[in-house]
TrEMBL record:
Keywords assigned: Leucine-rich repeat, Repeat
Domain of life: Eukaryota
InterPro entries: Leu-rich_rpt, LRR_dom_sf
Annotated protein name in UniProt: TILB protein
């Protein structure tokens, strides 16, 4: 049985002696360094070494293009199931290289803090269903126009004014605790005067009223 991964396509499964477990039953085999050229020569297995080196320049270039993150304009990195610290760090390493990305989807990745990430050209960011608790934990996105943060855990609007000097037009905060804050829409629009749409609803006249103005209701008492 051949290993499916490209770097190990010239390697095969080996049965383990004196064990009932066979090599093709291992789910996470450990790949170790193979024998040296000298050892292969004495074992008369030089052909194995030649097979390993049969990687053309075209294949190397194609593999390099697969990680050409710097020139990526649109990217969907949703549902990555980032359960290990190594996965999270490698994920952030990729995000740091997205210097030209304009549309980015990061849905349902259990993300908590991307404040160290800068996306200088990002115009559309979808980070729904993550674990952000504050606007301070979002990446630096100076050119953002459409931002979706539905189903996170953002409890306060503190830090939302950082987007005042961005061209942000549309913001979605549905199913966040801050949505239940008193005068929620007025507070958002007062901090973001250029915002046109909040939670899919266009800016309304009553959204322009100052957030500190109390609304009085007429009470009718029936005896």
């Amino acid at each position: 049985f051949k290993l499916p991964s490209d770097p190990f396509k010239y390697l095969g499964w080996c049965d383990i002696e004196e064990h009932s477990v066979r090599g093709n039953q291992l789910h996470c085999p450990r790949v170790r360094e193979g024998p040296s050229e000298e050892e292969l020569f004495f074992r008369k297995e030089e052909h194995v070494l030649k097979k390993r080196k049969q990687v053309t320049d075209t294949e190397k270039w194609e593999k390099r293009l697969q990680e050409n993150w710097e020139n990526c304009a649109e990217l969907n990195l949703s549902f990555q199931d980032l359960g290990d610290l190594y996965q999270v760090e490698n994920f952030k390493r990729i995000l740091r290289r997205l210097i030209r990305v304009e549309k980015l989807w990061l849905v349902d990745n259990s993300l908590t803090d991307l404040s160290a990430i800068r996306l200088p050209r990002c115009r559309e960011l979808n980070a729904n269903k993550n674990h952000f608790t504050s606007f301070k934990q979002l990446p630096k996105i100076p050119q953002i126009q459409h931002l979706s943060l539905a189903e996170n855990n953002i409890t306060t609007l503190s830090g939302i004014s950082d987007f005042r000097h961005t061209p942000l037009e549309s913001l979605i905060l549905k199913r966040n605790p801050c949505e239940f804050q008193e005068r929620y829409r007025q507070l958002v629009f007062s901090n973001l005067p250029n915002l046109k749409i909040l939670d899919g609803i266009p800016k309304l006249p009553e959204d322009c009223s100052p957030p500190d103005v109390r609304i009085f209701y007429r009470i009718c008492t029936i005896l």
